[in-house]
Design a protein that fits this description.
alpha+beta; nine-stranded antiparallel sheet; 9 strands
Length: 233
């Protein structure tokens, strides 16, 4: 990260422990970035993160669990795998987030490190008592969908996650939306029970397929996640 950008990021987070920024569009269920500030001395004025727990891509693209602290060096572990992210404070209070993949960088100051997790697909802020439930429903629906696809891969969970992480975040988001949208189209009960969520799926598909976003017809998630012979090597 360039020094000017790092300094601006640290200044931006001067009075925050974390922040969600850059909604892709006004009605998006998520944000373009999650910013997390870790300080050597807690402020005790707000949520004071001490760790980030997530999965990152390591050698040959395989996912690895990582716990990042204020002095953690990222090295080449700058790719975030799809799935849940948690930030944890010194009292073990946890805040949850969900990503379709992205990148992580860090701005380091004398008393603070600000980690920036960015993605072309919305990063979802899961409900912690002060956010809406739309992000929760999208994250849980996505995890259920991915779990059904995982069955094809047998016990090879790491290869499944490696394939998932190899897909561009925006394409993975689009393909996931399409699969969820089809399931709602096929079920009048789902549409009647969750009309707002169904409306959100339709809006997000229109957004992601617009010329200035993905701008092309995306592959179905089931086609993107078909195991290949190379996945077993």
């Amino acid at each position: 990260m360039k020094s000017v950008e790092a300094a601006e990021l640290i200044r931006q987070m001067e009075n925050s422990g974390f922040d969600m920024v850059a909604r892709p569009h006004p009605r998006s269920p998520g944000y373009g970035a999650l910013l997390v500030a870790m300080r050597r001395i807690p402020t005790e004025r707000h949520f004071d993160p001490e760790a980030i727990q997530l999965f990152v891509s390591e050698g040959r693209g395989y996912p690895a669990a990582a716990t990042l602290h204020i002095a953690s060096e990222l090295g080449d572990r700058n790719r975030v795998c799809p799935g849940q992210i948690e930030i944890v404070d010194r009292l073990n209070k946890r805040l949850g987030f969900f990503t379709f993949g992205g990148e992580i960088d860090v701005a380091v100051g004398p008393q603070v490190s600000v980690f920036s997790i960015r993605s072309q697909a919305p990063v979802l802020h899961l409900s912690n008592g002060f956010t809406d439930e739309m992000a929760d429903q999208l994250a849980s629906g996505t995890e259920a969908l991915w779990a059904r696809l995982r069955v094809r891969w047998g016990v090879n969970d790491s290869a499944f996650m490696r394939r998932l992480a190899s897909i561009h975040p925006l394409e993975l988001y689009a393909a996931t939306l399409e699969s969820l949208h089809v399931s709602y189209q096929d079920s009048p009960i789902l549409r009647q029970t969750f009309p707002e969520f169904y409306g959100m799926l339709r809006r997000e598909l229109q957004w992601v397929e617009s010329p200035d976003v993905l701008g092309k017809k995306h592959l179905a998630l089931s086609d993107l996640m078909v195991p290949a012979e190379s996945d077993w090597g």
